[in-house]
Design goal:
heterodimer; A: alpha/beta; Rossmann fold; 6-stranded mixed β-sheet; 4-stranded antiparallel β-sheet; B: alpha/beta; 10-stranded mixed β-sheet; 9 helices; 23% helix
Chain lengths: 251, 431
Amino acid sequence: MLEINDLHVKLEEEDKAILKGVTLAVPDGKVHAIMGPNGSGKSTLSYVLSGRGGYQVTDGSATLDGQDLLGMEVEERAAAGLFLAFQYPVEIPGVGNMTFLRTALNAQRKARGEEEISATEFLKLVREKAKRLEIDADMLKRPVNMGFSGGEKKRNEILQMSVLEPKMCILDETDSGLDVDAMKLVAKGVNALRDGTRSFLVITHYQRLLDHIVPDVVHIMAAGRIIRSGGPELALEVEENGYADILGEVA
Amino acid sequence: MARAQLLAAKRAAAETRLAELRLPEGGGWARRAREAALARLRESGLPGRRDEYWRFTRPDTLIAPEAPAAAVAKVDEAPVFDALERLKIVFVDGVFDAQASDDLSLEGVSIERLSTAAKADLHWARDVYGVLEARGQSPVERPLAALNTAFAEDGVLINVSHPTSKPINLIYCHESESSDAMLHHVVRLAPGAALTLLENGPAAARFNKVLEVDLGEGARFDHVRAQGSDRARRAVTHVFARLAAQSRFKSFTLTVNGVLTRNECVVEFAGEGAVAHVAGACVGDGAFHHDDTVFITHDAVGCESRQVFKKVLRDGAEGVFQGKILVRPDAQKTDGYQISQALLLDGDSQFFAKPELEIHADDVICSHGSTIGAIDEEALFYLRSRGVPRHLASDLLTLAFLAEATQEVEDARLREELTDRLDAWLARRRD
């Protein structure tokens, strides 16, 4: 379970508060969505949880299964079972996709005291997962995300997720820049990973992704706080009326 | 006036260096080559700090009469090309070691020691020995190469008449802390002949080496070297290559450690449609200074040259790249490319680059680029967010940076071997 309690975050370089007391709990096996207008702090939340630099936590806590996430190194959070699917996956020339993924998987296994996976076993595993996401062998051979289309990059994120098998997946605007077909494919990949224990935090601007990845709970975030939570119907309300009504109510 | 003073100082430096040196004994051809080189050296003098061509690298310790002492590194890795089937020729502190070397016989090749061949009155090597070096003295002087031609007593003369079945590996061992070694090698490839030449090892406390390579029509020469990992060693090396039509020359150098290394490579295209690739990857920290100086002259139609140099520097290390492509008026359809890049792993390291193009023909493609950068923080975060520990992620990105240079080594086994060495160097420095 991911538990975020009264989390306050500011930019490291300037005195600007971004998150102003976020409280949220995603129980095992559940899918929570966070929606909100631009600049509400949604992406910041995902970065802070995954350990990206440039932010300073001024108050509050975040734990995964009781482990303090905020005190861990980036890679320790990953080994503890946290995964962030990037809004803008990074291109890394010269590092092969397969080398990268195998290094990552083995590093996580090692950190957890598990045996490393052999090259042949790994190849089999990746091929099988890639097939379901319609990722061809050529994509796997290329350097990480190099020359990938927007849709391919996002599918590659989901491939990494399905190989690394995290406990808690954060999807940061995974639907941005995707056409309907690509979005369906990504959603299918995510839904295949819903196994009753793995949890998801889906960050999105739009309701349409939530047609395909149906959440248990929807949170609305604005100005660094969660201002309303509800069922999937809340997303539909946003779709119909925009954020203005909800923001108005709270104000 | 200033120029005259500078020249006087350089000539004085040469005389100081020459005071203790005597030309080696030799027969007609070798004596003439050495005397001519000595005259070149006396004319040009030895480089000083104010020489433009030595602006970023201090020549003092390379020209001094005494070689500064250098501790011999204890290395527990196996020498780099040990697993390969090859013909070994071993030098210890610049002295040929017959016992450690293989029998100098290989089908399609004649291999002789310079010290033996120099006794003859006539020898095929007279057409190459000191000849390519002398051609390479213009438009820029390379006095340390002339010094080598004049005073090197040993080396190998390799005459290749056919494609060879295995590489020749020159191995340079370093055993004495005060050794000052000079070696001069010559390779001549007949039309259609092919050879892979491997070189590895630190060689000596101070090493001055010249390699002259004369390629006949359609000949192929692959050169891969790994300069030894002794920290305190100093080296100045020159490669002079002349390429006849349709020939192909590839040279790659891996350098790890070394307090001072200056590698010069001078390539002359003398026939149409030839290809020359010169590449290097180096990694160094602390008292490490590495200088790649390349001069490529296109004097024939339709030739391709490519320079790829990558440097990884940390903890005060210094890197230098001086690379020039000169395209003469008749060298139309020239394809020239040059890239030099440094990855600085901290704020203490420095990279100096002087890329130059001088083009006198109007139908050519020439490009160059030079960059200095740090590890990409975005990429680092991405890798770490997948569970790759920081040091491993940083090493992956560093090897990726070097890959464009190491990929210039065509033989996959050699390439892997060299990449493993780079990886091991990085691994030894993990926090």
